UniProtKB/TrEMBL annotation:
Coiled-coil regions listed: none
Catalysis performed (reactions): L-homoserine + acetyl-CoA = O-acetyl-L-homoserine + CoA
Source species: Sphingomonas lycopersici
SUPFAM superfamilies: alpha/beta-Hydrolases (SSF53474)
GO cellular component: cytoplasm
Active site feature: 151, 316, 349
Protein name (Swiss-Prot/TrEMBL): Homoserine O-acetyltransferase
Enzyme Commission no: 2.3.1.31
Length: 371
């Protein structure tokens, strides 16, 4: 099937596959929703792949068709931006397992003519990368000038350099890690249990009825706390009460921070699928780049000839700086060229998505040096 506007979600392709998965199964066909910006050079040498985070999507620099909001990284990607679409051909694909047009639990299983739901195969970060490689093959991109990602996108960028070392010239990894800590897995499990405890989840079979909105909203609230910093929360909300009688105690959203988290949860339900949340968080938890390469992280990069740029934030306790340093040490051991910077920000993990002039300068300088 050629590109179309299926689902009203932008560009979409159905590839025959099959895609061999780390879990041993095969997925066919493979649906991939994606967006492109800029023009591919005649020699194909200006392609940049943007890998998105857990709850993001392919609309990195264009308005979201469901929410109407601007692209989630318009300050980074666009004409004259650090990732300059006047010079670069930028591709951003919705990850495998997600709910914005790529193959996932909400797509139709050709064997049953119903949504896959929990019959969708378990996926990994490396499976997502392999699906992206299939898309790039379709687009005629043999080699990437750079792969760029933050958070889960950074995991994909690392996996790209390790899985397709001959196809990546540079990798930018922002606020990420080579594997999840026990704490990260624990937070994800709380979110998954919240979804599965919602009676409307119905073992994942809810597509023709009411969605498990309450459980997914709680999962988003718990996760969102990890994206922020204590200093940022204190500065923004403190212990301030809502603008009403402070003596009317109860279980309504008395504190401003409560109201903020509830809003985050409810707005998330409008644009994301609960089963996709289960699958993608599990893929992140399974990710262990060292384990994929004999237990030694440096082994993942020995075949790579890419340049690497790693960035962390000093208030990010979800993926603290020590995680980036561990990757830098592995890259040094593998003899790979790497630059690293810890940036100061009050915004915690979400800093890479917010206004960060220092981050823009780092990315622009690194990509410019490669050009």
């Amino acid at each position: 099937m050629s590109d179309d506007q299926r689902y009203g979600l932008g560009r979409h392709i159905v590839l025959p596959g099959p895609l061999r998965l780390d879990g041993g199964g095969m997925l066919a066909p493979v649906e991939i929703a994606y967006e492109t910006y800029g023009t591919l050079a005649p020699d194909g040498g200006n392609a940049v792949l943007i890998c998105h985070a857990l709850t993001m999507d392919q609309f990195v620099a264009s308005p979201h068709p469901r929410t109407g909001k601007p692209g989630w990284w318009t300050a980074m990607v666009g004409p004259g931006r650090p990732i300059d679409t006047d010079r670069m051909f930028v591709v951003c694909a919705n990850v495998l397992g997600s709910c914005m047009g790529s193959s996932g639990p909400a797509t139709i299983d050709p064997a049953t003519a119903r949504e896959y739901a929990m019959a969708f195969p378990v996926i990994t970060i490396r499976d997502m990368v392999r699906a992206q490689a299939m898309l790039l093959d379709h687009l005629g991109v043999a080699r990437l000038a750079a792969v760029v990602g933050g958070s889960m996108g950074g995991m994909q960028a690392l996996s790209w350099a390790a899985t397709f070392p001959d196809r990546v010239a540079a990798a930018v990894v922002i606020a990420s890690a080579a594997r999840h800590s026990a704490q990260n897995i624990a937070f994800h499990e709380v979110g998954r249990q919240a979804v599965m405890a919602d009676p409307r989840w119905n073992n994942g079979d809810y597509y023709n009825g009411e969605v498990p909105a309450a459980g997914l909203a709680v999962a988003r609230m718990a996760a969102h706390i990890t994206y922020l910093s204590e200093a940022g929360l204190t500065e923004k909300f403190g212990r301030r009460l809502q603008a009403r009688d402070a003596k009317s105690f109860g279980f309504d959203a008395d504190f401003q921070v409560e109201s903020y988290l509830r809003h985050q949860g409810l707005s998330f339900v409008d644009r994301f699928d609960a089963n996709s949340y289960l699958y993608i968080t599990r893929a992140m938890d399974y990710f262990d780049l060292a384990e994929e390469h004999g237990g030694l992280l440096a082994n993942a990069f020995r075949a790579s000839r890419a340049r690497f740029c790693l960035v962390s934030f000093d208030t990010d306790w979800l993926y603290p700086t020590r995680e980036s340093r561990a990757i830098v040490h592995a890259l040094n051991a593998a003899g790979a060229p790497v630059s690293f910077m810890e940036l100061s920000s009050p915004y915690g993990h979400d800093a890479f998505l917010l206004d960060s002039p220092e981050l823009y300068r780092v990315v622009a300088g690194f990509l410019g040096a490669g050009a």
